[in-house]
Amino acid sequence: MVETIFDLPVEKQIFYAVLGFSWTVYLWEAYLSYRQRRIYRSTTHVPQELGKIMDSETFEKSRLYQLDKSNFSFWSGLYSETEGTLILLLGGIPFLWGVAGSVTTRLGFSPEYEITQSLVFLTLATLFSALTGLPWSLYNTFVIEEKHGFNQQTLGFFLKDAVKKFVVTQCILLPVTSLLLYIIKIGGDYFFIYAWLFTLAVSLVLVTIYADYIAPLFDKFTPLPEGELKTDIEAMAKSISFPLTKVYVVEGSKRSSHSNAYFYGFFKNKRIVLFDTLLEDYSPLNKSGEPQPEPPESDDTSSEAKAKPKNKKQGCNNPEILAVLGHELGHWKLGHTVKNIVISQMNSFLCFSLFAALIGRKELFVAFGFDDSQPTLIGLMIIFQFIFSPYNELLSFCLTVLSRRFEFQADAFARGMGKASELYSALIKLNKDNLGFPVADWLFSMWHYSHPPLLERLRALGNVKQD
C-alpha cells in the first residue's frame, strides 16, 4: 500500500508542505526568468516603436547587461534554494540553536536565559548568511557590475563596507529583538498588540533617524549648493505645500554609477536626497569639455573609490530633475506614502494576531526538529517565514500591482504640474544611464515590476515630442 503525505504525522505534513511550497515558488520564479531571458536573447534589434528613443548601441548594452544579471540570478537563486533545503533536511536550525545554547552556557548563563540564547543564535545565523552570501555579492559587484561599467568600488572599500553593514545591523537587530522577545514573554493574552505597537514604534524611529544618523555612516551627504536648482526645488515644494526643510546630495558615485532620488521625514520636517549621479552638472562621473563643479570631498572613504578615467555623460539637466522630483512629490501629495504605511501596519497586526493563535501549537516546533522546547524566536521564524509564505507571496504580488498603479498616478501628477515633456526625456535618460531593457515578457513584468515598463509610462505621459 502506497503511503501518501496525508498518512504521515501532522508535523511531517507541515514540514513537507513548507518544503514543497518553497520549491514551487522557486520553480515559478525560474520559469518567469526563463521567459524573460528568451526575450533578452531573441530581441537583438531595436523594435520600431523604440527607434526614436533608444539607439542600437545602448539597446545592445542593456540587453547584454540584463542577460548577465538574469543568468546570475538563476544560479544564485538555485544555490539559495538548495542551501535552504539542506538546512531544513539536515536539521540546521535546531543544530545552530544547540550551538547557541553551548555558547551561552560557557558564558555562564543557564538554559533559562532564552533571550540571551536567542541573541547568540541570531548573531550566528546572520553571520552564516553574510559569509555564504559574500562570494555571490563579490561576483555581482566585481564581475557583472564591473563588466558593464557600473562598479566604482575597490575590493578594500567593498569589504570594509560589508563589515560596517554587519556591525550596524547587529547594533540595531539585537536590542530590538531582545525587547520584542521580552514583550512577547510578559505580554499576557494581548502580547500580540504590544508586540505590534513596539514594531510600529521601531519602524517609525528607524525611518526618522535613518538618513540623518545611519546612512551617513556609509555615504557622504552634503547640502545642495545655493543656485538655480535649489531655488526651483524649493519653489516647487512650496507650490504644493510640501514642508521641505533641506535638500541633500549623496555621494553615490563612490559605489556605483546607478542613480536615484528620494524624500524622507515625518510631518513638517521633510528632506529631499539626490544622488550625485542623477545630476548632469554635478556628477563626478561626467567628463566634458566644459568645467564641471567639483564633487564633494569625501573624508576617509574618497581614496578608496576607484580611480579610473570616466568618459560617460550621464544624469539629467535641471528641468528634468525637477520633473523627477515632481513625480516623487506626487507620491506624497497623493498619499501613497501614508497608504503604504497603513497597509504595512495592517499586515503586521494581522501577522502578529495569527502568530498569537499558532505559537502554542507544539507540532509546528516538532516539524522543524524542536521536540523538547518551543523557543519564541524559533516560533517567530517558523510562523513568519515558513507558515506564512503562501500569504507573503500573494501579498507581495498585490503590492507590486498597487505600486505600478501608484507610479502611473505620480507620473500623471508631474504631468499636471506641466512637466510631461521633461519627465518624458528624464525617463529615457535614466533608462539609458541604468541600462534598463525596455522590452519585457508580459508575465514576468506583471509578477516582478514594481514600476511600469518604460514604453507604458511614456505612452501614459501622452504624445510628447522629444527634440
From TrEMBL:
Taxonomic superkingdom: Eukaryota
CAAX prenyl protease 1 N-terminal domain segment(s): 36-220
Cofactor annotation comment: Binds 1 zinc ion per subunit.
Transmembrane segments: 14-32, 86-107, 119-139, 166-184, 190-211, 341-360, 380-402
Domain Peptidase M48, chain residue ranges per copy: 224-462
GO cellular component, one term: endoplasmic reticulum membrane
Protein name listed in UniProt: CAAX prenyl protease
Entry keyword set: Endoplasmic reticulum, Hydrolase, Membrane, Metal-binding, Metalloprotease, Protease, Transmembrane, Transmembrane helix, Zinc
Similarity section: Belongs to the peptidase M48A family.
Subcellular location, record wording: Endoplasmic reticulum membrane
Cofactor: Zn(2+)
Keyword Endoplasmic reticulum: yes
Purpose: Proteolytically removes the C-terminal three residues of farnesylated proteins.
Signal peptide range in chain numbering: none
Residues engaged in binding Zn(2+): 327, 331, 407
Keyword Endoplasmic reticulum: yes
Native species: Seriola dumerili (Greater amberjack)
Biological processes annotated in GO: CAAX-box protein processing
